[in-house]
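Supplementary Note 3. Input sequence used for the single-chain structure prediction.
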Amino acid sequence: MTVALWCILIAILLPYVCTWVAKISGGFRLKDNHDPRDFLDSLEGFGRRAHAAQLNSFEVIPAFAAAVIVAHLAGNAELVTINVLAVLFITSRLLYIICYLADWATLRSLVWFVGIGLIVSFFVVSV
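The predicted structure, written as discrete structure tokens, is reproduced below.
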């Protein structure tokens, strides 16, 4: 397996880190597990931002996974290029989550655009 394919797994797991942060910050108790979505929707501040970062992280996984797979299947890009793009994407997602948790809205948006640009880059290098 390539580094880029392992990065897909990392991208899949990142939202759950955000979920854990949201639940811990909101004082999650075992009884809250009967309706965890309602609990997460009721959060405010830091916990709510962690939940929002989780939702956004889930939204971007399909695009990233498709981009990595297309780059592999096209066979036109150097493997090292694909791997570097994937690691940069994961780095951008980590920065995005940090910006969301810190409530740095403008920087978060810039980092989001970088991540989307990286997804597009997989297709560009595959031509």
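Helices lie at 3-25, 36-41, 45-74, 79-102, 105-125. The first helix runs from residue 3 to 25.
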